Amino acid sequence: MNFSKNRLLLGRPFLKFIFNLTFCTMNNKMSLPFFILIIASLFLAYRGPETKKNHTSAGFASLKPIGNEKYAIDNKESVVEWNCSMVFADKGGHTGYISISKGELMIEKRQLVSGKVEIDMNTMTDEFHGSNNNLINHLKEADFFDVKKFPIATFAVTNVSSGDEENIKITGNLTIKGITNSVTFPAKIKLKGRILNADGEVTIDRTQWDIRYGSGRFFDDLADHAISDSIQFNLKIVARK
Q1: pLDDT tens-digit readout, 51-110
Q2: I need a labelling partner for 14 at 20 to 30 A (CA). Which of 4, 51, 83, 222 fits?
């Protein structure tokens, strides 16, 4: 029999062939082992085409791109400086600092590609590094940053546009008081050996994070006591590989 044309033997013709073969075997007293060998060969010949296996590893997509280098932020040398002012400049303003609790930056081919920073709002101080005074205590209350309920602010890089190796434009999600908005700001990054230094300056509209105290946009009777809706953050980051 030509087994290369086995697909012509399907359904009832194939069953009839098996029956006839069995009958002949019994009449001719063919050995049982020889009969089993023939049947096994026929079933192998009628086996369908082998299904191609997908050899792609399920975990491959989750692997980090080759060449990325992780720099851990040094929370002792990194700091965020904040600045806010009154609407009328002659009424002054306030400056202070907030510590970065942890974070990391991913670098590929000497360019920032991703990163995340956590800021401990409980570390907020004034310009003299005072932390227990009327100004700081008020900034931590619910009508400002509500630090008791939201002790951590975060920033996660979502996109980086580079003009050259050092001057870049960073876009990311800034979360304050549990509210997340996208911000974009210019920054400078310098790599020297295993140390990364980054400086950036971002100005936000605080009302987008539900910080409305003293805002002329929401209160009509503030007169010259209105506080600017803008808060400026200056980032000084040191990270190590």
Answers
A1: 444 433 333 232 344 458 999 999 999 999 999 987 655 567 899 999 999 999 999 988
A2: 51
Beta strands 167-176; 152-162: pairing state: antiparallel
How does pLDDT run across 211-230, given as a tens digit for each residue? 999 887 776 665 566 889 99
Count other Cβ atoms within 10 Å, centred on residue 111.
Answer: 13
Helical spans, DSSP H, in the chain: 12-27, 32-45, 134-139
How many Å apart are CA 101 and CA 153, to the nearest integer? 10
Report which of residues 225 and 234 the model is more confident about: 234
| 93 CB-side CA count, 13 A | 16
Strand-pairing partners, residue 45, are none
Distance between CA atoms of residues 114 and 189, nearest Å: 13
Phi, psi of 83 (to 5 degrees): -140, 130
Report d(CA 153, CA 144) in Å as an integer.
13
Per-position b or e across 65-95, b if 16+ CB within 10 A of its CB: eeeeeebebbbeebbbebbbbbbeeeeeeee
Q: Which of 177, 208, 84, 175 is nearest to 135 (CA)?
A: 84
